[in-house]
TrEMBL record:
Residues 1-22 are annotated as: Disordered. The lineage of its organism: Bacteria, Pseudomonadati, Thermodesulfobacteriota, Desulfovibrionia, Desulfovibrionales. This is DUF4911 domain-containing protein. It comes from the Bacteria.
């Protein structure tokens, strides 16, 4: 090992960065739908030019979270509303920070 490498051992050389609140970066929409429609809903949502992505929160209740940029909220909500004929959405809600 070089002497310059040994000088860094045991020392934290990372710099501390302050990050903005993650809620400023992303918005979330929560949707409850039939379990059999989760894959179809995810496929359609993520095929729209990376508009949003879907995470399954509870596979038994079929509760999913849609994550997207805050400035795309209107587009995402209108997409979800347009999918109501294809996917039997039971509930759709947002939690305010």
């Amino acid at each position: 090992m070089k002497s310059s490498e040994t000088a860094h051992l045991g020392k934290d050389t990372r710099t501390t960065r302050s990050h903005p609140n993650p809620r400023c970066w992303s918005a979330h929409l929560y949707v409850e739908l039939p379990r059999t429609d989760i894959a179809l809903f995810k496929f359609i949502l993520e095929s729209c030019d990376n508009l949003a992505y879907l995470s399954v929160l509870d596979k038994y209740r079929a509760l999913v979270r849609i994550t997207f940029a805050e400035d795309m909220r209107e587009t995402v909500v209108s997409l979800v509303q347009s999918l109501e004929d294809t996917v039997a959405i039971r509930s759709c809600f947002s939690i305010s920070p």
